[in-house]
Specification:
CATH class of the largest domain in chain A: Alpha Beta
CATH topology of the largest domain in chain A: Quinone Oxidoreductase, Chain A, domain 1
CATH architecture of the largest domain in chain A: Alpha-Beta Complex
Strand content of chain A: 25-35%
Number of domains of chain A: 2
Largest interface: A-B, 33 and 33 residues
Distance between the termini of chain A: 25 Å
Radius of gyration of chain A: 20 Å
Helix content of chain A: 25-40%
Oligomer: homodimer
Number of helices of chain A: 10
Largest sheet of chain A: 7 strands, mixed
Number of strands of chain A: 15
CATH superfamily of the largest domain in chain A: Medium-chain alcohol dehydrogenases, catalytic domain
Chain lengths: 336, 336
Amino acid sequence: MDRPINRRITLAARPQGMVAESCFARDEVPAPSPGEGEALVRTLYLSIDPTIRGWMERDTYLPAIAIGDPVRSGAVAEVVESRNPAYAVGDRVFGMVGWQDYALVDSGAAAMQVLPPGIEPTDALGIYGITGLTAWFGLLDLGQPKQGETVLVSGAAGATGSVVGQLAKIHGCRAVGIAGGPEKCRFVTEDCGFDACIDYKAGDVGRGIAEHCPHGVDVFFDNVGGDILDAALLRINQRARVVLCGAIASYNDAEPPPGPRNLMQLVIQRARMEGFIVLDYLPRFPEAMADLAKHVAEGRIHHRVDVVEGLERAPEALLRLFSGANLGKQLVKVAD
Amino acid sequence: MDRPINRRITLAARPQGMVAESCFARDEVPAPSPGEGEALVRTLYLSIDPTIRGWMERDTYLPAIAIGDPVRSGAVAEVVESRNPAYAVGDRVFGMVGWQDYALVDSGAAAMQVLPPGIEPTDALGIYGITGLTAWFGLLDLGQPKQGETVLVSGAAGATGSVVGQLAKIHGCRAVGIAGGPEKCRFVTEDCGFDACIDYKAGDVGRGIAEHCPHGVDVFFDNVGGDILDAALLRINQRARVVLCGAIASYNDAEPPPGPRNLMQLVIQRARMEGFIVLDYLPRFPEAMADLAKHVAEGRIHHRVDVVEGLERAPEALLRLFSGANLGKQLVKVAD
């Protein structure tokens, strides 16, 4: 039987330093045929996230991607053949498929979830996807913002950071962002309604924090790490919560850079720094999605996607995250 | 009226880098006379703690010591004159007096607590003092050790670290220490009953942790910071708790050194790093002291003091902490 062609972008070499085109290989193979209990899905959109860089390099909270395997990635796909009653042809599903046109899914380890009615594929990967959920659990579960507190967010124009600040506003906090460049800062304040945004490319971040967080920082939601984390630590209040979401500033360093000099601030301010992995919250995803959907419906959360067209451009889309070129959730559109 | 002579060691200059004799001035003044509601106390023992270095330099969780003031210090003293019914001549009291022979106390900001009967002055500053209480609250409140977990302690031969490991054993954990030199390591394992002690002067700490914490580290109680914190972060388990008690490795650096490179371990392992100041737990001190006293009475907590004789040697005693010369709680005996 003639099988459709499955274009794949696989891991050719582990990155050393910045991700480069040489990390990837491209091939075309026949799409696999679903066995009993399996279905074949066709990728519509890929979710491009900084954590992919980590999966390419080494075991972290998930095993490293094996050399020769398609690059692991969240995605929305459409069921095109099915030998599993859980999947009907035409269903839209989301989960992990990797950088390829076709993948097999089942009801076990390779299961995908059917998209609830009314949810757009791009929203399933953005505001209701890992990035939106990361904002929700990181801020509310670890950050525990209280009315009147100040929430500082780095990477504030990003898919996670922008939602963190808007949730902070909804919870009665002052929301201050840190982002790079006037366009991103405008997005953060004007579109997302943060109280202020500090342009880290335009001046001293520490001074910006002092100016825009006159009562100090109660929650620092950090997507960036490095010098920005250090500057924020100098301004934390007593009992502050530092939510370590990521450290995109250093994901492409060949070895981890030195950490923050001002760690003793955690002692002096009796403060807490905590990391998390959103996948741990899987059983609570419906609760978070329902809350996010309510805020979106009420027009209280603004979100946007940044779509690159074409599977072949997935590596380029990943690099956009590290150069800061993207504005909004980075997606790759693979098929209609 | 002839007043006794009050020898004082005052702050002459803020330390830059290592504490030096030039930071201190010495004078002799007449002891003050208590006004209505005050009492005069005579210092018996001074508690010498690493945190004094911080108070000398800058505002932290307490205001910096003012230039010209006696160096701030915990102490046990004896009431020698009283115009306050809360203090009877002959009472032994503990609290903050500073590096001097005599001080005024009152029932307000300068109050001291009367020593409970049966408590030796040295124990009031050691196992029942700030160092013992720091071990108790830091381990139990922040570290939350569970039976069968591994608790790693840096500065394990110190007045706080040695108690942390013994409390960990009492709570059913594996206790592993890190200390400098064979004498201290022997004290940690043989006298304090830790399961193992890593001599950081004798080899690679990371390898030692891997060897002696074969199931990883669930609680890391850190008194040291620097490279030791970095090495420990590489071995933490999921949901680990890193209790930041201090960072004696860097207290004398002119500026804070770079922090741990392996901070992203907090994300990958969903772990928490938290600082605390034991003075915040003041209302719960009696609970902790009662628990410690029970363990001491049952012979389950071994503790020792390291006494330097003479007020004039207080600066030298402080320096002993940073060179690691002390073994046990560092005290200065000022009077019988």
